Amino acid sequence: MVENFCLEKVRAALDQREAEKTYGVTGTGLTPVPWSAPALERAWRTEHPKRFAWFAAEGLSSRVPKEACRLRAAGFKNFFDSRNGARKGKKLGFPDWRKRKHRSRFRYDVNERRAVAADAAACGIDVGVKTFATVADDDGTVTEIHAPKPLKAALRRLRKANKAVARKQRGSNNRGLTLNDRVWTCSCGVVHDRDVNAAINLLAAVKLDRPSA
């Protein structure tokens, strides 16, 4: 809803500017376009008490529209930069309306820290290469979560970065292993899974940091 409000304000300003140009208005005389995050936030604070009175009545956090304005501003900046040649890659289209069924995400900060019980369940999570994540629970269960397709490009960059780091480490063992060698057999005959080992090590680290009851 807030993102659509922001889009409405920017579209209205752009339409007004086009109309003013037909009247001979130029330069600073044209209506400014409030596409930056601060400008969108000011517009929201000014208009929402009357247009969206329920927002304040429900006691919703002011950080929610602040985050929505920030996301819209980033989208507008990417569009204008793409159109002006300041952004590399394929040309971006103008931001579109958010539909009700759109599974949009949002986040906002809160001044609250949740206390974790000393006996709460813990797990170690390793973000891997072959799998998106390997989770080791403290009951001994190991779960592999496969990477969604949008992560493939990022994982390729991650593999390159990990290879560069591995080459720079001095005195590391198993230098003959490549990043693609996720499972290997020790000279003693034990079979190791690197993602599982990493998740188990993270779980052990969590238990060490947790205060005793």
Automatic annotation (TrEMBL):
Record-annotated membrane-spanning stretches: none
Keyword DNA-binding on entry: yes
GO MF term set: DNA binding
Domain Probable transposase IS891/IS1136/IS1341 residue range list: 106-175
Name by which UniProt lists this protein: Transposase
Similarity field: In the C-terminal section; belongs to the transposase 35 family.
Keywords tagged on the record: DNA recombination, DNA-binding, Transposition
Superkingdom, taxonomy of origin: Bacteria
Residue ranges occupied by any Cas12f1-like TNB domain in the UniProt entry: 176-202
One BP annotation, GO: DNA recombination
